[in-house]
Specification:
The protein is an all-alpha fold. It has helices at 2-59, 64-67.
């Protein structure tokens, strides 16, 4: 009888470890996906800033960004 209790306990331990490992994999994929989304959005924002800067430099050369660009 004691061996059955021990086997049942060990089976639960292994099941818990398996679920824990699966959760770690899922979390790592989710974090990677969210990180890639964030980087993509930041790159997009950087391009918008660059485009607007160049547009203002071309469209308003007489302002020269208040002497910031020489």
């Amino acid at each position: 009888h004691a061996i059955l209790i021990l086997q049942r306990w060990w089976k639960r331990v292994l099941a818990f470890k398996s679920r824990e490992a699966a959760a770690v994999v899922i979390q790592s994929y989710a974090r990677g996906y969210l990180g890639r989304c964030r980087v993509t959005k930041e790159k997009h924002h950087a391009v918008i800033i660059q485009v607007r800067f160049i547009f203002n430099l071309i469209a308003f050369p007489h302002l020269a960004f208040l002497n910031l660009v020489k």
